[in-house]
Amino acid sequence: MSTQDQQLSERLAFIGLDAEARRALKAEAAFVDAVLPAILDRFYDTIRATPETRRFFRSEDHIRGAHGAQRKHWSRIAQAEYDAGYVDSVRAIGQTHARIGLEPRWYIGGYAVVLEGLVREALTRDWPGKPRFGQKPVGPEKTSELVGALIRAAMLDMDFAISIYLDAAEEARREALRQAEVERQQMLQDLADRFEGAVSGIAERVASAACQLEATARSMAEIAGQTSDRSTRVAAAAQQATSNVSMVAASTEQIGASVAEIAGRVTRSSVMTDEAVVRAQAANETLGQLAASAETVGALVSLISEIAAQTNMLSINATIESARAGDAGKGFAVVADEIKRLAAQTARTAEQARDQIGGMQRIARESAGAIEDIRRIIEDLAGVSAAIKDSVDEQAATTRDIARNTHEAATGAEAVSRDIVIVHDAAKHTGQSSSEVVAASQALEREADSLREAVDGFLVSVRAA
Length: 465
Description:
By secondary structure, the chain is mainly alpha-helical. It is built from eleven helices and no strands. It is rod-shaped, with a radius of gyration of 68 Å.
């Protein structure tokens, strides 16, 4: 006996559909077939009037088809043949109900309507002992046997239908779970793939950025080291330049003292020359006036010549000092430019003086010989003294300017030395910071490797879930 047959026998025994009950039911099969159409008509009228059940039928033809199937199935129930054909029929009904979503409450109500109709017809026919044509009157025992058999058969059929409905629903639930699990696995797989693509890309970019950062930091450290070395050399050179400028300043002060002494002597010489001029003018007033004019012009020419000579000398000295001082001697370059401008002006003045000297020479030739010679000598002496005095004064002023600029250059060189020390310290600090950045970038690269390992482990767990 198969499992299905075993279960069917157990249900029949439990519900009380033994051989005698099945014979009593089968004996009334013709009666059931006769009254069933009207009962089913009333049942489907109820279905039409109920929106919740009417929606399961597409048309009247659909209802008529269901009507015929129900009539056939209830006729099979009345035959009391509980075999494989019956089980297939009730299984088809239960699966159909599950497929269309007809809830048990509706077809339990259907069983109640049909069963109530069959019981009513049986009682109406047999009660109270109304005899059938050509037969003995039917007692209540027979009627109760029929009603009991109908109720048991209907309950058995309903049991099968509900069980099949529940089995189908459970299978649908399991299928939904299987499908949900498949979709979940696919979703997890897709999520893992997307996560792997996103996080792995981030990890790779972090690792790449860490490598680039490390390379940049190493380059910074190398540059900082070079800067530190160069700043050390520059600091030494700046210190030497400061020492040289200080020496130049001291020498300039000594030159200033010498120039002051020369100026004093020139002043005394000028006094003596002035006395000689006064005595010469006493000899001849007119010649003295001419001599004075000649002296004035000669002094102008001599002054211009001396200024030009001194200017050239200053220009040469300024150029030399500027070249020696380097960046700190930029102030000397300014002085050199000023001296060059003064030289150009001196050249123009000399040209003008030449014209005046020519006129004075014509006047001088008309003067007397001896007095003219004496006067010229005195005038020349006075002019030379005046020129020397002016040149010495100019040299003194220039020397003072040089001394001042030299002191400023020394101060600037000292400031440069201090700045170079600051640059050296900054380069050293930059080197230390670069080393820290290298260490941090290496740590970041290790963290990126750890992140990749964690991501790989996470993806393995997700894909295995």
